[in-house]
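User: I'm curious whether this sequence folds into something compact or stays loose and floppy. Could you predict its structure so I can see for myself?
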Amino acid sequence: QVQLVESGGGLVQPGGSLRLSCAASGSIVNIHTMVWYRQAPGNERELVAAITSGGSTNYADSVKARFTISRNNAKNTVYLQMNSLKPEDTAVYYCSLPRYDYWGQGTQVTVSS
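Assistant: Here's the prediction. I'll summarize afterward.
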């Protein structure tokens, strides 16, 4: 089983930036699509961004041009750079390896003044 550990969440003011990291315990993540999801209180979990093994990316319309997903295969790590954050970005953010239904524990992002 691969362990996924997210980090980098926190409290930030509107317009600020955060970078989330998802560190995997194995290199298997390097050959599969990795996905960031988020879930706000009372809402369903939603896809935020995805990156394939080849580096192709896909984003939810609500985060396009503000968020960037990337990966460092040497470190078995996937990142989510979040800029121009808005209060509606407040949620618990999870990384996932959908091929095997692996999930991290989540990291809280709160955007508030």
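Summary: The two ends are 40 Å apart (CA to CA). The chain is about 0% helix and 50% strand.
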